[in-house]
Amino acid sequence: MIPHKKKIIVLGGGPNRIGQGIEFDYCCCHASYAIKEEGYEAIMVNSNPETVSTDFDTSDRLYFEPLTREDVLHIVEAEKPAGVIVQFGGQTPLNLAKQLEDASVPIIGTSVKSIDRAEDRKLFKAILKKAKLNQPQNGIAKSTAEAIKIAKKIGYPVIVRPSYVLGGRAMRIVYDEIDLDEYMKKAVIASPEKPILIDKFLDDAIEVDVDCVSDGKKTVICGIMEHIEEAGIHSGDSACVLPTFSLSKSMLDEIRSATNSLAKELKVIGLMNIQYAVKNSVLYVLEVNPRASRTVPFVSKATGVQWAKIATKAMLGKTLQELGVEKEIIPGYFAVKEAVFPFSRFPGVDPVLGPEMKSTGEVMGIDKDLGMAYMKAQIAAGQKLPMEGKIFISVNDRDKRTIVGLAKRLASLGYVVVSTPGTADILKKNGLEVIPVAKIGEGSPDILDLIKNLEVKMVINTPGDKKTKFDETKIRSGAIMHMVPIITTISGARATVSGLEAARKKGFNVCSLQEYHE
Amino acid sequence: MPKRTDIKSILIIGSGPIVIGQACEFDYSGAQACKALKAEGYKVILVNSNPATIMTDPEMADRTYIEPIIPEFVEKIIEKERPDAVLPTLGGQTALNCAFQLAEMGVFKKYNVEMIGANAEVIKKAEDRELFKKAMQKIGLDLPKSKRAHSLKEAKQVAKEIGFPLIIRPSFTLGGTGGGAAFNIQEFETIVERGLEASMLSEVLIEESVAGWKEFEMEVMRDLADNVVIICSIENFDPMGVHTGDSITVAPAQTLTDKEFQLMRDASIAVIREIGVDTGGSNIQFAVHPDTGRMVIIEMNPRVSRSSALASKATGFPIAKIAAKLAVGYTLDEIPNDITQVTPASFEPTIDYCVVKIPRFTFEKFPGADQTLTISMKSVGETMAIGRTFKEALQKGLRGLEISAAGFDDLKFKPTVAELNNKLKYPCAERIFYLKYAIKSGMSINKIYDITKIDKWFLNNLKEIIEVESFIKKNKKKILKNPSIMRKAKENGFSDIQIARLIGSDEVSVYSAREKMGLKVSFKLVDTCAAEFPAFTPYYYSTYELEDECRA
């Protein structure tokens, strides 16, 4: 018998679901490749038959088993590994980490304690205080009365969510006390055991996602991504761009130094993802996840470095210096990630975005020009953006100021703007020609008829208040059913207009990753 | 036949973003194809807009284009790279549709690109309902009565001819988008209108409903020398009427007689030959009437599918990899099986275990969505479990689903009689747990069968799990000390959490009690050949038997 090599077990992500998909399969595969490259035996545990991680030649040995304490312990007993990796399979292996550690299973990489510290609100607050970093004002409410008091103190709008659910479930942005009261009554029952978390919502803030890798001593930034949609849309659902396009150098440096100090404080070995928000030139930390995030494959494709592999090797004891990873790579082109939604499967459901993740997948558009990269991402996501024709615009009061400029740009590209009375008035006052159309049920044809007859080629509709919600839902789900491209955020509209301008000017080019990375 | 040397570079089309109906199984198949073709020395050019895939890793292909998978962009890539051939059968419906459009536009002809795996004619014959019907009739296979329509008026005429209930299927869509079953004219009109819009050809097929019939799938492969192998048979626990992607499925098929199975086998071979898939894998779906045994063919996918990924994982036979090699001219007998290294790919896999796949849903994310399972797919993921019996595999699958079930659990509330009947009749994500409630509340297997049309063999297996549950409860005091009682529980797939709940203990105590009594799990091999030959790149599943095949 040849003496056995040391073994490392990688725990996979189990069945795909919204919020935990192919990205983690990607990370687990790279972990396995890295383990093999470093001369260990790679052992994979996963139960998802759709994946590459369960391909027979991805690892040295594969266990097709459920990811539960019992099943994993059986495998650990049979294999006696030198280490078990829990940070690449999404929430599934993390949920097991504590139980496995209690059963003396050797977890490698960032410690389970650090992962818990980042998830526990009190401990997390202390970390930020120590690192002198800001967090949106927040509080914990154990009753409706308490919730109202806290919200009044920190000021509306606030984000509310139950403390005991993950992934943005039942998370809501509320703008006033009536809303909050309704949420507390309808959606959740707050109690001492199940309190409600309340955060100040930073409206109109720019959201930023950062992935970094650390060997325990040195930290290198994998990528800083700027979101297109403003804060308040789940990061998995918003489009993002690498490199950033509107942040100042001093803000980027502030982000880099904050990332470094958080990695140090949490003693990260492996990957970490941080979500920041920037409002009025102030940096806020929204969330820290000391593990592989959904954006790792996107950042890897955009920068040409296999970050999950680097992270695995760091977890096996290599330093970043030994791995030749010295500094952040800022590409000389733009990569845009856009989310893809399953709304067409659920007729009648309002396809509006919010703090709860709803996308099933993602695409990437890549180009030297930001507008073009955004357009490519939109086309790849299945939006049939029109090159001419009528565009329906109806926005809420907050967005009315911004939409004027965008509508003018669309008009100068030759598009015809169609609006319902409210938005039409504003646009006309600003000297724009607008074709008026009746609201639903207030004339014939109404806007829904125009959508059904495919007379409008694109819809820009940002959600208003409760009064208009009923009509808006019909308009938006009507657009989805008839495959008319729909944009529900003002920042999305802005990016789309820039994209249409760029596409008109230059036309599309294709270029391979190998050429980009050269 | 040796591999082709007249082609040097091959364009592989991926499947794009993860959507319902098209998930990472196409990353699995595409990545296998890239690796296989690159290893054979071909220059591989890849297009896929999804950055989260392994296949778009720069080292997987010689040229990787992260660009939209629509004809305009793919044409630009062809113009730039000038591939000799295009392989469109590994990127799901997206790749197949895109390639078909490019062929129709004359792009392949213009740049002298050959379609390998499946050409435009084959795609059309399999996807165009009318041509498919003719082809099946030609080889003497039965189909549900059907007719196509291009307008609502035409559709209503067809409805009159065939009679309700009816199934409406739009041509050329993905995962059945826009399709549905109609029991009356109101439902019919809504679905037809939606279907006409969803179809690339503004065409719907109106079909005799075979809802409630038993549903089967066969995974088949064929090479240029006309050798055909059956890789795996799959049976749906949920009968016709629920999309395969939303059904609990079982491999191999459990409830067919040998005669029925042989008939289905022969039919599958005849189908792949008639449609003319020269090289590669196909998925063929059948429905069997539970009383008369009438077998009809439902559809055929001339490409690698979600089910072929499942069949690959269930058997150890890498369908996509073999399909890629067949596409460049190898024959099945020339390709070695990586797992045994001695048997060729023409050696049909043998399974000495039971595989259960269970879909995962996320309806909680879409308030207001209709949660009834229909022929339009709604699940977002799946888990697969392997056991020595259906009972063991089902329980493992349910605990692997991560919906906070520890196995075949009880409902967390007591449904009313009306609610129960409703949930049994109209399939939903939790139907399996309602079935348990129905059996435990004393509803007879015959009654449940009448409502659900789920085969009695499956229902009786569920009943047996419930009997073991009572057995564990009865032996509450003994089980933690008595290995034979514990073994019976574990052989039937009961998790430690389930046992703990039944006897009023906790998971950790059950685990350590098992350790103390020396009742160990044994690991068995998935080796494609039921242990006839040694396996080299094995994978394992756990069960409770005396012999352990693990070489850790």
From TrEMBL, chain A:
GO biological process: 'de novo' UMP biosynthetic process; glutamine metabolic process; L-arginine biosynthetic process
Listed InterPro entries: ATP-grasp, CPAse_ATP-bd, CPSase_dom, CPSase_preATP-grasp, MGS-like_dom, MGS-like_dom_sf, MGS_CPS_CarB, PreATP-grasp_dom_sf
Catalytic activity: hydrogencarbonate + NH4(+) + 2 ATP = carbamoyl phosphate + 2 ADP + phosphate + 2 H(+)
Pfam families the UniProt entry points to: CPSase_L_D1, CPSase_L_D2, MGS
Pathway membership, UniProt: Amino-acid biosynthesis; L-arginine biosynthesis; carbamoyl phosphate from bicarbonate: step 1/1
SMART domains for this protein: MGS
Assigned keywords, A-Z: Amino-acid biosynthesis, Arginine biosynthesis, ATP-binding, Ligase, Magnesium, Manganese, Metal-binding, Nucleotide-binding, Pyrimidine biosynthesis
Domain MGS-like span(s) in chain numbering: 383-518
Domain ATP-grasp: 125-316
Family from the record: Belongs to the CarB family.
Entry-linked PANTHER family: CARBAMOYL-PHOSPHATE SYNTHASE [AMMONIA], MITOCHONDRIAL, CARBAMOYLTRANSFERASE FAMILY MEMBER
One CC-aspect GO term: cytoplasm
GO molecular function: ATP binding; carbamoyl-phosphate synthase (ammonia) activity; carbamoyl-phosphate synthase (glutamine-hydrolyzing) activity; metal ion binding
UniProt cofactor(s): Mn(2+)
Protein name: CarB2
Automatic annotation (TrEMBL), chain B:
Any coiled-coil regions, as ranges: none
This protein's GO CC annotations: cytoplasm
UniProt pathway: Amino-acid biosynthesis; L-arginine biosynthesis; carbamoyl phosphate from bicarbonate: step 1/1; Pyrimidine metabolism; UMP biosynthesis via de novo pathway; (S)-dihydroorotate from bicarbonate: step 1/3
Keyword Transport included in the entry's annotation: no
UniProt-listed InterPro entries: ATP-grasp, CarbamoylP_synth_lsu_oligo_sf, CPAse_ATP-bd, CPSase_dom, CPSase_lsu_oligo, CPSase_preATP-grasp, PreATP-grasp_dom_sf
PROSITE patterns: ATP_GRASP, CPSASE_1, CPSASE_2, PROKAR_LIPOPROTEIN
The protein's assembly and partners: Composed of two chains; the small (or glutamine) chain promotes the hydrolysis of glutamine to ammonia, which is used by the large (or ammonia) chain to synthesize carbamoyl phosphate. Tetramer of heterodimers (alpha,beta)4.
Membership in a protein family: Belongs to the CarB family.
Classification via NCBIfam families: PRK05294.1 (NF003671), PRK12815.1 (NF009455)
Function: Large subunit of the glutamine-dependent carbamoyl phosphate synthetase (CPSase). CPSase catalyzes the formation of carbamoyl phosphate from the ammonia moiety of glutamine, carbonate, and phosphate donated by ATP, constituting the first step of 2 biosynthetic pathways, one leading to arginine and/or urea and the other to pyrimidine nucleotides.
Protein name: Carbamoyl-phosphate synthase large subunit
